[in-house]
Write a structure and sequence with these properties.
Elements: E1 4-9, H1 16-25, H2 27-35, E2 38-43, H3 46-55, E3 61-64, H4 81-86, E4 91-94, H5 97-103, H6 107-119, E5 123-128, H7 132-136, H8 140-151, H9 157-160, E6 164-167, H10 181-199, E7 208-211, H11 219-223, E8 230-233, H12 240-252
Parallel strand pairs: 1-2, 1-8, 2-3, 3-4, 4-5, 5-6, 6-7, 7-8
The chain binds 1,3-dihydroxyacetonephosphate (13P).
Length: 254
Amino acid sequence: MRKKLLLGNWKMNKTPAEAKAFALSASEMVEYAVAHNIDVGVAPTFVCLQTVKENINPKCIVSAQNCNEHDHGAYTGEVSIPMLKAVGIDWVILGHSERREYNGETSKACNAKIKALLANEMTPVYCCGESLETFEAGKTKEFVEEQIKTGLADLTKEDAEKVVIAYEPIWAIGTGKSASKEIAEDTIAFIRGVLREMFGEVAEKIRILYGGSVKPVNVAEYMSAPDIDGALVGGASLEPDSFKALIEGIANSK
Ligand code: 13P
């Protein structure tokens, strides 16, 4: 049985003071999640990682939203894995569609970052998902398959087991137009099939999240789908009350 995971992607939101206030208010909801066997985490911006890590319930995962695969050097504007580790961070989101669109992040670049994270015993959350155009052309599966095969190329089974995947159809992100449970489950079950082809039975242990306009009102529905192991949430993860309602929704979906 895969443990459910709720990860809040704060994107480019919150000052350090705002992030700290969230962290300080989150203790009880994190305990509630733990008591209901749910992993819970937040992904602040780089400048907020340290304050969130220092002020949030230690049972809460704190994830970065990106990293560089090199340890140090002439990479202006980048942040390395040892730097993240130095402030206690061991999870990193990679390949988010916004980074693919605005920062030219490719599946191949994600592959190098995923390998570097795994070599450092950290957890990559690898995002995939298609545009509206691809969805409407009926090409979702072949598109996502390529992202998974390239992003996770050459991983051992042992390493693949440690990766978390997030399926986020771009047309559902921040639009209020969430994918139906059936669409999300169908694509996520397909992704698990791709993982099975690549890594065998280990695929049954890999958590695959859904993301895209997940809200307190619809989270339980997604969680009732057999292959959906959690949610990667943007907008609805920003306020403590809403984040708490998401955790409660997952707890009550069981
Ligand atoms: P929203 O929940 O705001 O649609 O964002 C989803 C997302 O991109 C999470 O990574």
